[in-house]
Design brief:
Helices cover 46% and strands 3% of the residues. With 180 residues, it is mainly α.
Length: 180
């Protein structure tokens, strides 16, 4: 309600007030100082001559100046190893993929494994834990033993279990309760 009232007073006689404001005479600006204007300095012939005149003494001094510039060597600060640029090419090893080689990368840096390799070694360890021990996996894939132990402890591959059809029939053939 208050917005309507204030809008009525704000819009009252708007056109007449605007015309009155536009028709007022504009105040004349204060005069500027003569030396503050840049166009008056450019017009004087003395300044033009001074700018265009060559000074032989300064030219001779300028010819004697020789500047040699060298950039300091770039140093990478140690910030915990997160954002460091590699100082040399990392050693890479070929992946051990077997029949899944079309799905993954061909070369991996030492100390790392690809996704397909990780799934393969986890599955091998799950199927044959006596053969595929953590030490053998670390030696085979050029990994640290601590990382392999963590990998085997915290990551487990999925298993697919299919229920036999007999069980399915037994579940559906039980007496079903009627809802009333």
């Amino acid at each position: 309600m208050g917005g309507r009232v204030s809008r009525v007073f704000r819009n009252f006689n708007v056109e007449n007030r605007a015309r009155r404001e536009i028709s007022k005479e504009k105040p004349t600006p204060a005069p500027r100082h003569r030396t503050a204007r840049p166009d008056t300095m450019a017009d004087s012939p003395e300044i033009k001559e001074e700018v265009l005149r060559k000074d032989d003494q300064f030219l001779n001094l300028l010819k004697d100046v020789y500047v040699e510039s060298r950039d300091p060597p770039v140093r990478v600060k140690d910030g915990g190893g997160e954002h460091l640029l590699p100082s040399k090419q990392q050693e890479k090893r070929l992946t051990k993929l077997g029949h899944l080689e079309a799905l993954d990368v061909k070369k991996v840096p030492k100390g790392k494994i690809s996704l397909v390799e990780a799934l393969t070694l986890l599955n091998n360890h799950k199927l044959q834990p006596q053969v595929w021990t953590a030490e053998k996996i670390a030696a085979e894939y050029s990994l640290e033993l601590k990382e392999v132990n963590s990998l085997l402890e915290f990551f487990i591959p999925f298993t697919v279990v299919e229920f036999p059809k007999d069980t399915k029939k037994a579940i559906t053939s039980q007496n079903q309760k009627k809802l009333t």
